[in-house]
Specification:
six-stranded parallel β-sheet; globular; about 525 residues; Rossmann fold; Glyco_trans_1
Length: about 525
């Protein structure tokens, strides 16, 4: 997608629900070290412990919530599944009954999945070990009387959303969808490396896939009762493309139990020492899945051309794993910086904050973020940050010069070269001016708590739940289970046909670029741990 497809935000607008949720939480200035864990005085004690506690189903009973998810366990670090886990736990903590519905994962063990998980038949996406695509291939899926919920929350990128639409039509269950993926950038991950380098291929796919995909998801979203997007730019993007249902801008929450814990041991020291590098040198870090859409290859090039030559002790650490890890290692060797580009592989979620807090700066080059979980985590930890403006999730989180540095990514080869040089200079400036970096980090931690604390995000989600149920009520849905069987089967066939067709195509597409090795198991937490 071109940068002009999503308007730059400048002064970012905040919708009313988000403003009210943020205004309800006030923090005193941070105490203690800006990098050693923040302990701002919180006003949570004056608020409901859990905003979902005020919600109820029929006759005042607890809510029954279906959560449609692309994962029924946490196979690897993934922003959407971590947020699904947080929502599941928040709902169940206050007595509601949340049921996770997603693809059957043959590698999952019982202790990795929430109790009562409904695992649908699935096929693997070969590009991503650990990812499975749900399909309606067993008879129990078709039984409308099996499903009894007060609301369906569809946090999915797949056509599993068709199941939510079917439930809405068959049973009158309100449906709240979430846009979790930048669709126009997603197809590139599935292309083999050589094919991805051919400009004509991207031109053809851009014309043949982008518009139909956008029309498909606009139609799907408009059959629900609301759409959650993760940034203001995406609200405008989907509204301009025809989404007519209410759109709620709700950022993702940063779990305090993980990112407010005491500062742990320095994870860089042993990595640097085993390479014979100075542990006192500037440590630049980037975290996330190793895929082309995340642009770590651009970051490696920026480091090699604009940072490493000017600071012989600087290092770049890439935290994470993915199908492009081997290609990134090869690129670092080609550019002569293999010794100074450190690849950790996947690390436990519980340890990631130490990589942020012990770093000099967090560097983020991705232009495909609907939100950018790793960015919000780094900001929460007070890590000075340099990023490219994307008009979406990154731009919504950074006010350049206040809580980070946000740079124009450039369009075209010459402009990108200039942008890369500016990015490298900005990173070096932070390393050379610790006081300026500390000011950015302190503001970053404060603003992240105002936007992404669990109490703020849960309040906005609770409001969206109420709004979706009101929208469904005003729409006057007449459940098809009350009508002729023939009409029920016709509607079932219509929705599940497109679900199977789309998923089958994606399954075949995944064979173009199968991953070289499976992901290690047992690194990330379970849903209930």
């Amino acid at each position: 997608m071109t940068m002009d497809a999503i308007r730059p935000l400048g002064e970012h607008r905040i919708d009313r629900a988000q403003h009210e949720a943020i205004a309800s939480v006030r923090h005193a200035p941070s105490t203690g070290s800006a990098r050693g864990g923040h302990s701002p005085a919180r006003a949570q004690a004056a608020l409901p412990e859990n905003p979902f506690a005020a919600l109820s189903g029929a006759n005042g009973r607890p809510l029954k919530v279906a959560i449609l998810s692309d994962f029924t366990r946490i196979p690897y670090a993934n922003g959407a599944v971590f947020q699904t886990r947080a929502l599941y736990r928040a709902l169940n903590t206050c007595g509601h009954q949340a049921t996770l519905i997603g693809p059957r994962d043959p590698d999952a063990s019982a202790d990795e999945m929430p109790p009562g998980t409904v695992a649908l038949p699935s096929v693997p996406l070969r590009t991503y070990p650990g990812v499975h695509l749900p399909m309606p291939l067993e008879s129990f899926v078709f039984d409308p009387m099996r499903w009894d919920f007060d609301i369906c929350f569809a946090q999915t990128t797949t056509l599993l959303v068709e199941f939510g639409i079917w439930l809405r039509k068959m049973r009158g269950i309100p449906l709240l969808c979430v846009n979790t993926t930048h669709l126009a950038a997603a197809y590139d991950v599935l292309l083999p490396e050589r094919v991805s380098r051919i400009g004509a291929v991207h031109t053809v796919l851009h014309k043949t896939l982008r518009a139909p995909m956008e029309r498909l998801f606009v139609d799907l979203y408009n059959q629900g009762d609301g759409l959650v997007v993760l940034s203001e730019g995406l609200r405008d993007y989907w509204r301009e493309r025809g989404v007519a249902v209410p759109i709620h801008v709700i950022p993702r929450m940063v779990p305090e139990d993980v990112f407010d814990r005491p500062l742990g041991p320095d994870p860089y020291a042993p990595l640097l020492e085993e390479r014979g590098l100075d542990v006192r040198g500037p440590r630049f870090v980037c975290a996330g899945r190793h895929t082309r859409e995340k642009s770590q290859h651009r970051l490696i090039r920026i480091f090699a051309e604009h940072i490493a030559p000017h600071h012989p002790q600087a290092t770049l650490t890439l935290v994470g794993d993915g199908p492009d890890s081997a290609a990134y290692a090869a690129l670092a060797r080609e550019l002569g910086v293999a010794r100074r580009v450190i690849m950790t592989g996947e690390v436990p979620y519980s340890r990631i904050s130490d990589y942020y807090r012990h770093a000099t700066a967090f560097l983020h080059a991705s232009l495909s973020e609907t939100f950018g979980n790793v960015l919000s985590e780094a900001l929460w930890c007070g890590t000075p940050t340099v990023a490219f403006a994307d008009g979406m999730g990154v731009s919504s989180q950074i006010q350049s010069g206040y809580n980070g540095l946000l740079l124009d990514p450039g369009r075209g080869a010459l402009a990108e070269d200039r942008a890369n040089a500016a990015f490298g200079n900005a990173a070096l400036a932070l390393a050379r001016d610790p006081q300026a970096a500390a000011r950015l980090g302190s503001a970053a931690a404060q603003r992240a708590r105002e936007r992404s604390s669990p109490i703020v995000v849960q309040r906005m989600l609770a409001n969206a739940f109420v709004n979706a149920r009101e929208h469904a009520r005003e729409a006057g849905i007449r459940p098809l289970v009350e009508g002729p069987k023939a009409l029920q089967w016709l509607e079932t066939f219509r929705h599940f046909r497109s679900w199977v067709g789309f998923t089958g195509g994606l399954f075949a597409f995944g064979h173009l670029r199968p991953a070289a090795a499976p992901r290690p198991k047992g690194i990330q937490p379970s849903f209930c741990a």
